[in-house]
Amino acid sequence: MRLVTWNVLHGCSPDDGRVDLDRFAAAVRDLDADVLALQEVDRGQERSREADLAEIAAEAMGARDHRFAAALVGPPGAWSAAPDEDRVGGPGAAAADATAALPAAAPERMEALVAPTPREPAYGVALISRLPVLAWHAVRVPPLPRPVPLLVGRPLRPVVVHDEPRVAVAARVTTEAGPVTVATTHLSFIPGWNLVQLRRLVRALDGEVGPGPLVLTGDLNTGPRRARWVSGMTGLAGGPTFPAPQPRAQLDHVLGRSVQARDGEVRRLPVSDHRALAVTVRPA
């Protein structure tokens, strides 16, 4: 299967600062993915014309199935953690390695777990598949529970930042060579904590899908060496992906276990400040 991961910057092009839904759909078609993993996905947000970007991508691909998983609800500047069935406190209180395995025929249960109502603005990740999906999984990824100082900007200046709740969505996909579990996420921008999240996420996925073929994709906000070391997985495609015009760092990854890979490439598209990362994979 041809697998692509792409941080879409809510469908915006940095060249003109606009969200053009036709341009976004054309970019998705141009990728020609069997399975497409998206991060920074809007649903019902005013800044992206209140569109469901995952649904637009699915229609552009001719996909059989897709799932959007919200990490945050509300408009930018007034975010709150996405609701779930067992949250008992503030953001992250119910998140530590919490996992829910769902049959493919029960999307409403997944929506109840990690997504808001259809009319509520939301922001998160999405997984879209042309191939048949046997089961869906959702994993909540805890944010750092306290604010931390970081040096940001040019020139560098110290600021105190608060982490955000994160989420992963995974699908057990049928391929001609056998099933493969594909997951996608967008991890913290806080150095070090994103590695804690990555380790916990892999452990949570292992608990659900077992030792079979697994591909983990997404914007991990870390480089390839650390991503491979912490996850214990193999990098299946490589190359700088950020910032899109003149990329200097690989923040976007396709990591695999018990799979074979070929034809890895980095793709620049007329949307987003990230380039897409594509590869063809099959079970080993």
Structural write-up:
The protein has 284 residues and is α+β, with helices and mostly antiparallel strands. The chain has 5 helices and 18 strands. The protein has helices spanning 21-31, 53-61, 107-114, 193-209, 224-231, and strands at 2-7, 12-13, 18-19, 35-43, 65-73, 80-81, 99-103, 122-129, 133-141, 148-152, 157-161, 166-175, 178-186, 214-219, 234-235, 252-257, 259-267, 276-283. Strands 6-5-8-4-1-18-17 form a 7-stranded mixed sheet. It has a 7-stranded mixed sheet with strand order 7-9-12-13-14-16-15, sandwiched between helices. Strand 17 and strand 18 form a beta hairpin. It is globular. The two termini are 13 Å apart. 47% of the residues are buried.
H and E order: EEEHEHEEEHEEEEEEHEHEEEE
Distance between the termini: 13 Å
The shape, in one word, is globular
Computed structural class: alpha+beta
Strand content: 35-45%
Using only C-alpha atoms, the radius of gyration works out to 17 Å
Helicity level: 10-25%
**Unreliable stretches:** 85-115
